[in-house]
Amino acid sequence: MCDDYIRDHHPALARRASRLGGRLLTAKGDHVSERPAVTRLPGKPNQPLPPTGRPACGQIVRIHSGQSHGFIRDEDSREVFFHRTDTAWGTFNQLLVGDKVAFELIEDRCSGPRATRVRRGDSAR
Fold first, then answer.
1. Could you say which DSSP state residue 27 is in?
2. Which residues are registered as beta bridge partners of 79?
3. Are residues 95 and 63 in contact, defined by beta-carbon separation less than 8 angstroms?
4. Ranges of each domain in the chain
5. Where is pLDDT greater, at 7 or 73?
6. Cα separation of 57 and 72, whole Å?
7. Which of 7, 70, 81, 113 could share a disulfide with 14, CB 3.0–4.6 Å?
């Protein structure tokens, strides 16, 4: 009876229910909702978790401070991209060409290798 009433008087809810397999959630709660359980993850809501990679070391070879990015040459002699947001706050402006840095290396098939969590020093934690 309740499902018929909703189909007749609230066509938008009926269309939504048909997409959910015909199940309607009424005020009485006689049907179960199909929503996934909410998970509580650290960080900001509705933001993806920051990517993590394998620890690596390298040396700064180029910095484009006006464009907020630079490149690191890693132990395998590859140039690895990093962005200002991948460094600790205030660290980007202090980096110079030739500085030894430690970072986490992310291998991306589309855009190539990227460094995250870039910090001064040559110890890859």
1. T
2. 73
3. yes
4. 1-35, 54-120
5. 73
6. 9
7. 7
Assess whether pLDDT exceeds 70 at residue 54: yes
Alpha-carbon gap, residue 63 to 65, rounded angstroms: 6
How far apart, in whole angstroms, are the C-alpha atoms of residue 41 and residue 44?
8
pTM: 0.59
Residue 5 DSSP SS3: helix
How is 87-104 classified by DSSP, letter by letter?
A: B-TTTGGG--TT-EEEEE
Q: Which residue has the tokens 């992310």?
A: 106
Q: In whole angstroms, what is the distance from residue 105 CA to residue 54 CA?
A: 5
Least confident of 9-13, 30-34, 37-41: 30-34
Rounded Cα distance between 63 and 86, Å, is 13
CATH superfamily of this structure's domain 54-120: Nucleic acid-binding proteins (2.40.50.140)
